[in-house]
Design goal:
The complex is a heterodimer. By secondary structure, chain A is mainly α. Chain A has one domain. Chain A has helices at residues 2-32, 39-55, 63-81, 90-112, 136-158, 160-170, 172-177, 182-204, 214-229, 234-254, 257-274, and strands at 117-118, 126-129, 132-135, 209-210. In chain A, the strands form 2 sheets. A two-stranded antiparallel sheet of chain A has the order 1-4. Chain A has a two-stranded antiparallel ribbon with strand order 2-3. In chain A, a hairpin with a 2-residue loop joins strand 2 (126-129) and strand 3 (132-135). Chain B has helices at 2-21, 23-50, 58-74, 79-103, 108-128, 130-133, 154-177, 179-189, 191-197, 201-227, 237-250, 256-272, 277-294, 299-306, 373-381, 403-408, 426-435, 441-446, 455-463, 479-492, 509-526, 537-543, 561-566, 568-575; strands spanning 146-147, 150-151, 318-321, 335-344, 347-357, 362-366, 388-393, 396-397, 411-414, 450-453, 497-501, 530-533, 546-551, 554-559. Chain B has 2 domains: 2-233, no CATH class; 335-575, 3-Layer(aba) Sandwich (Rossmann fold). The longest helix of chain B is centred in the N-terminal third of the chain and has 28 residues, at 23-50. In chain B, helix 1 runs antiparallel to helix 2 (23-50), helix 2 runs antiparallel to helix 10 and helix 3 packs antiparallel against helix 4 (79-103). In chain B, a hairpin with a 2-residue loop joins strand 4 (335-344) and strand 5. The chains are: A mainly alpha, B alpha/beta. Chains A and B meet through helix 4, helix 9 and helix 11 of A and helix 5, helix 11 and helix 13 of B.
Chain lengths: 284, 582
């Protein structure tokens, strides 16, 4: 029973982190139809921000706003310099962002060397949850990540900015001719997606060894979430994250991690065959 | 063909020269990169010629490499059997991926993502599945190629592998220079047009993917024999992306481009990576971005453009007039569509529409905007599925068949905006349309660059001046010329009925009257049933035997032009009066 409880909490932790990472991808894909293969590297930059903040003697939690700001600017810059030129050609965005992911990884490796860095746990110790002992930080992670996901969802569904974005998704041309500056909305959306990834990087940093390769490990899961979630609305990302987290945690527990990845992939393929959503180019 | 033979001989001479003079190390390196060039060419086949970016070309390649490694280490003389196994396994894997992707018509982006996931998962499985793949360390000590019991020496292996690689690349080059290549370009440029010509484009794309998988499998076989080992690190994500880079930089859709890309970048990385690994990888990333932004078509097409030459020289197939096909006379209706229902989601476009044409006639379909005319024509041509009702053409029930099956039944369609294949010449467009009567891969591979074209199509190209422009790429034609080319394409194959959506859109008054005359001539000369959606009443008066009026998704009148014009309900719909009062 206790093992199951721990797996449940593990699954919740995976759900929360996958949720944030996938949310950024979902925003960018939903709004612009852009597959951003460098999204994992935004997570990596966030983790390095956490390292730098702590290394500079500052409080770990300051890294969350710091990473959000840094990544917002990185994301906006990427949109303005790179993505803007190739919206019309989806395959080129895959290739360009792939090139970008290589560049960011290598820059990190050159700046920080191949040695991994350690971000120390801001809340060491464990807490009893219904009789199960679980690391306190990971409980906090679940709560903070969930709050961030909810905040971003509310931003996109309830605010005026969200309405603007949804108008652009529904009909870009009409939105533009109704006086909406779609180019600004693109920059903001890309920036917010990147900021979410950066925050995810800060949150996972104390749990992993921070190196230039960590982005790669988040990307497949996040894309599976977006596929399973069905591209159609951002809430789908939450449902997708729940399903993928459940499958991965469950299969990892009962079989092993490789089968967990295969199972998630099979699930994604099945979802694509069942739903019509994969054939639509751009939706939210 | 002659030029290609020249290239092939030159490449073989170059390979022999390297092997004779450049030393063992360089010769071995050349053979390795050529085996990777074969992989890049297999990607070019699926990406350059069907337009679908697959990041999963490594699956057939890597699987074949593991199969070969296991077979050849178990028994060196099984080398050729391993080649057969590699080709079959490669084709099967890629065919399966393509089937999963194309049957549900997944978007380009989703296919790209899915194949990327497959590559990542493949690497993980290879790492984990110790008993079969040797896990992280992989399998080593794979012997050289064994030809009919003769184990090749290291030097012979270098030469043989390089020559085999060049030969496979040349074979792919031959495949894409056959009529099949033109058909694949047609699918890449305008899949809908190819479907309405009668090509089962989904089936063809799956076959091309399978062919690409077979080539990638052969590349895996070559590579593992050449290098002597296989491991997840070697066949992992890095190679999956490098092969895309080589193809992108070299120029997809050219075959030779990816080969050049592989050799140049491959040798550069082999030389530079030792001393400046970090910066070299950084440079690859920059190269990716730069080529996407600056030369998205790749180097070979870029330089050809500088020289004023197209990336793919168009051909001018010889067009001859086909013997007219005679169909058995029977008493069944030409068109019998009954009770057609069609909705887009909750929005009902057609409700219980009936249309019967007993004898071949020239029928116009009119109605106010939003009446459902174009949708009805789409349903009649098989371009749109419909929810209720039945359609029978020439006495055969064709309800809910696909677009290409309608076309094979002789139902030819012209779209409102002209749909031609821009990068093929006028003559190639017509030939591709004519070949659609026998569209199997084998026939397309073996047939000559000539076509027997329906007489109606030949008359159109003679009368409209397209005859003089046979070698012009269709993308360079004027709007009116494209309209006629498309009608000619519709009539080039086994056309028994024409469905035209606003054929005179964008024509001047004189041009549309000429069009009316030509359509009447085609109709009476070949007893060809024609259904036309039109707005232009002058044109309709000039051509129509009969007019059918649609409004709000229902049929409201049917008769001669005069009858319909006098109909109070029709007047009400067009003039806005309350038709109950009228």
């Amino acid at each position: 029973m206790e093992a199951l409880g721990i797996e449940l909490l593990n699954g919740l932790g995976l759900f929360a982190t996958l949720g944030i990472v996938a949310l950024g991808l979902g925003i960018v894909f939903g709004l612009m139809g852009v597959i951003n293969l460098a999204h994992g590297e935004f997570v990596m930059i966030g983790a390095y921000v956490a390292y730098l903040v702590q290394d500079g003697g500052l409080n770990y939690w300051l890294a969350i706003p710091a990473a959000a700001v840094v990544l917002f600017f990185v994301g906006s810059a990427v949109e303005m310099v790179l993505i803007r030129r190739i919206y019309q050609k989806p395959e080129l965005t895959i290739l360009a962002t792939f090139g970008l992911s290589i560049v960011l990884r290598q820059l990190a490796e050159i700046l920080f060397s191949k040695n991994s860095r350690k971000v120390s746990n801001p809340i060491p110790g464990a807490t009893d949850v219904f009789g199960i002992t679980f690391p306190t930080y990971r409980l906090v992670l679940i709560v903070v990540a969930t709050l961030i996901v909810v905040a971003v969802l509310l931003l996109f569904t309830k605010s005026r900015f969200g309405l603007t974005v949804r108008a652009i998704v529904a009909n870009r041309g009409l939105a533009e001719s109704s006086g909406i500056r779609t180019s600004v909305a693109n920059i903001l959306a890309f920036g917010i997606g990147a900021a979410a990834a950066g925050v995810a990087g800060v949150l996972v940093a104390p749990l992993v060894s921070v190196d230039s390769q960590i982005g790669l490990s988040y990307l497949p899961g996040a894309f599976l979430v977006v596929i399973v979630g069905g591209f159609t609305r951002l809430w789908g990302v939450v449902i997708g994250a729940a399903i993928v987290a459940a499958v991965q945690t469950g299969v990892t527990h009962y079989v092993d991690a490789v089968w967990a990845q295969i199972a998630a992939l099979v699930l994604a393929v099945v979802m694509l065959q069942l739903s019509r959503s994969g054939s639509r180019e751009v939706t939210i | 063909m002659k030029r290609m033979t020249g290239y092939y001989i030159a490449a073989i001479v170059a390979v022999v020269a390297v092997n004779s003079f450049a030393g063992v190390f360089r010769s071995g390196q050349l053979a390795v990169f050529l085996s990777l060039a074969v992989l890049a060419v297999s990607l070019d086949l699926v990406w350059g010629y069907t337009g679908i970016l697959s990041l999963g070309q490594l699956l057939p390649f890597g699987t074949a490499a593991y199969v070969t490694a296991r077979m050849a280490t178990a028994e060196p003389s099984w080398s050729l059997a391993a080649l057969a196994a590699s080709v079959i396994v490669g084709a099967a894997i890629s065919g399966l991926i393509a089937a999963a992707a194309f049957y549900r018509r997944l978007s380009l982006v989703v296919v790209g993502l899915l194949t990327l996931m497959l590559s990542l998962t493949f690497e993980k499985i290879a790492n984990q599945w110790n008993s079969v793949t040797g896990g992280f360390n992989g399998l080593s000590g794979v012997p050289s190629i064994n030809l009919f019991g003769v184990q090749l020496s290291a030097e012979a292996q270098d030469l043989a592998a390089a020559i085999l690689a060049v030969t496979i690349i040349a074979a792919v080059g031959v495949v894409v220079s056959t009529p099949l290549g033109a058909v694949l370009i047609g699918i890449r440029d305008n899949e809908r047009r190819m479907q309405t010509l009668g090509y089962n484009t989904i089936g063809l794309k799956i076959m091309v993917f399978a062919l690409g998988g077979a080539v990638a499998g052969a590349a895996g076989w070559l590579n593992v024999h050449q290098t002597g080992f296989v491991s997840p690190g070697k066949f992992g994500f890095v190679l999956a992306t490098n092969v895309v880079l080589w193809t992108l930089v070299g120029g997809r859709g050219t075959i030779i481009g990816p080969v050049i890309g592989t050799l140049v970048i491959g040798f550069a990385s082999a030389t530079l990576a030792d001393s400046f690994l970090q910066y070299w990888v950084l440079a690859t990333g920059v190269l990716f971005i730069a080529s996407v932004i600056l030369i998205p078509d790749g180097l070979v097409p870029f330089f050809l453009k500088l020289l004023g030459r197209p990336a793919r020289p168009t051909r001018t197939p010889n067009l001859t007039t086909a013997e007219p096909v005679s169909y058995e006379a029977d008493s069944s209706d030409v068109i019998a569509a009954t009770n057609i229902d069609k909705s887009y989601g909750p929005f009902r476009v057609l409700e219980g529409v009936d249309l019967t044409m007993a004898e071949p006639e020239l029928r116009c379909l009119i109605g106010p905007n939003g009446a459902g005319k174009s949708t009805f024509l789409d349903v009649l041509g098989g371009q749109q599925p419909h929810q209720g009702g039945t359609i029978s053409m020439f006495g055969t029930d064709v309800t809910n068949r696909s677009s290409w099956q309608f076309a094979r039944h002789g139902i030819s369609r012209k779209f409102q905006a002209p749909q031609v294949i821009g990068s093929l010449s006028v003559a190639e467009n017509i030939a591709v349309a004519a070949w659609s009567t026998k569209p199997t891969i084998l026939r397309l591979l073996t047939r000559s660059w000539a076509a027997d074209v329906g007489e109606g199509a030949m008359r159109i190209i003679e009368k409209t001046g397209l005859d003089d422009r046979r070698d012009t790429p269709a993308g360079d034609l004027s709007h009116g010329e494209k309209q006629w080319l498309e009608i000619a394409m519709a009539m080039a194959g086994s056309c028994r009925m024409l469905l035209l959506d606003e054929p005179t859109a964008g024509m001047t008054v004189e041009e549309s009257l000429e069009a009316a005359e030509l359509l009447r001539e085609l109709h009476s000369r070949y007893e060809l049933p024609i259904v036309i959606v039109e707005h232009d009443m002058a044109f309709i008066r000039a051509v129509a035997d009969r007019v059918t009026v649609l409004a709000d998704g229902g049929l409201i009148a049917d008769g001669t032009v005069a009858e319909v014009e006098a109909d109070p309900q029709v007047r009400a719909v067009y003039l806005g009066a309350d038709h109950h009062a009228a």
